[in-house]
Design a protein that fits this description.
Largest sheet of chain A: 2 strands, antiparallel
Number of helices of chain A: 9
Low-confidence stretches of chain A: 1-10
Strand content of chain A: under 5%
Order of helices and strands of chain A: EEHHHHHHHHH
Strand order of the largest sheet of chain A: 1-2
CATH architecture of the largest domain in chain A: Orthogonal Bundle
CATH topology of the largest domain in chain A: Tetracycline Repressor, domain 2
Oligomer: homodimer
Radius of gyration of chain A: 19 Å
Structural class of chain A: mainly alpha
DNA sequence: GTCTATACAAAGATAGAC
DNA sequence: GTCTATCTTTGTATAGAC
């Protein structure tokens, strides 16, 4: 394999592999969207953060809405991959699966200015292009489905104990995670998401 | 008392009393901020929605940040009044107090495009003027304090049953409410907030 | 693939008449 | 207190050279 980057200067490293411009744009845009929301950053902000000129962005993403959709798509894929891998492991302990599943969310929770991308975008839902709305909705549906499956299995195997329907508990869990991410930034408390998720799993285990 | 409104046309009624222009601006701006976020609406949108011209807004609120702060302030006062009234009732049943406290949130939850103003604004926290950030933070702190008091008293009186610290449960409850508001719009489900709050109170009552 | 230059609309805001 | 007219800056986006 030949590295595509041909310029001078330091290589762009993230997660240990080199990134081309499109990836750098996606990564930086995700950061901006997580911290400022879709309507809270401009192509100018993005270009400044990356260190290129504004029109260069249009070569990779012909409109801000296209970029927005791509950013959510990448986030969604990344998060879904975790869920898919856990679904693929036969007979994994439900408590462990839940812990592994929540780890990416806890990681975001520990990053001071960050929050779940889709939680943030859900807050500006009707002020967003429709293509982006559909991506956000799909993200939430996917994760509700995963949580419902995991909770149902976990209760059947006596790893979890709760009265309500698995779907209702899944809805509660996802609401809780998303809400904790929003709240923690406003009260400037990095421990909130971890603490809250801990309280939840404590409740679920009876 | 003499009504201040002097023009022709239908009187502006909300909650059964006439509103002057400043109130209409505040009310309409709150709606826009709840549905589109602070960076998702403009003075032009607001003027159009009210039916006046853009510069007229500046007579009442000299900047968008001023208006934003005023909108949160009004929302905060309104919500705090409920909490203060409940604090003032000697020996009120904690479960009833919690139900009454949550009713305004449930009402917002039933309104299709709406969400808690401060939850929405918490999502764009770092893309907001500092004066507004401070209001949002204060809102959350107030409500965490109220919930903590209520939960501690409720447990002492055996109306609630939970293991964790009252503060931790208050943080969980507020995260849950705010998250449910965000989520319900993105999955277009008006029942989510009510269902989720029901599940929570069920859990708290043991 | 990136740049300079530029078009065009919208945003926040002000001046000053009525 | 509201209006018309206007200013300035920013935002999204395109044209065309390198």
């Amino acid at each position: 394999m030949i590295f595509r980057s041909g310029g001078s200067g330091p290589p762009d490293l993230t997660d240990g592999h080199r990134m081309d411009t499109a990836d750098r744009i996606l990564t930086t845009a995700e950061e901006l969207m997580q911290t400022r929301g879709y309507n809270g950053f401009s192509y100018q902000d993005l270009a400044d953060a990356i260190g290129i000129r504004k029109p260069s962005l249009y070569h990779h993403f012909p409109s801000k809405a296209d970029l927005g959709r791509a950013v959510i798509g990448a986030y969604r894929d990344r998060m879904r991959r975790v869920a898919d891998q856990l679904d693929a492991v036969e007979g994994i302990d439900p408590v462990s699966a839940l812990t592994l599943y929540l780890e990416p969310m806890l990681e975001i929770g520990r990053r001071p200015g960050a929050a779940c991308l889709c939680g943030v975008l859900g807050s500006e839902f009707s002020a967003m292009p429709e293509e982006m709305q559909a991506e956000v909705t799909a993200f939430f549906e996917e994760h509700l489905d995963f949580l419902e499956r995991l909770l149902a299995r976990g209760r059947a195997e006596a790893a979890f104990r709760f009265e309500a329907e698995p779907r209702a508990v899944a809805r509660l869990a996802l609401s809780l995670i998303e809400g904790a991410m929003i709240l923690k930034r406003s009260i400037d408390d990095r421990t909130l998401v971890g603490e809250t998720v801990g309280t939840l799993t404590g409740l679920l285990r009876g």
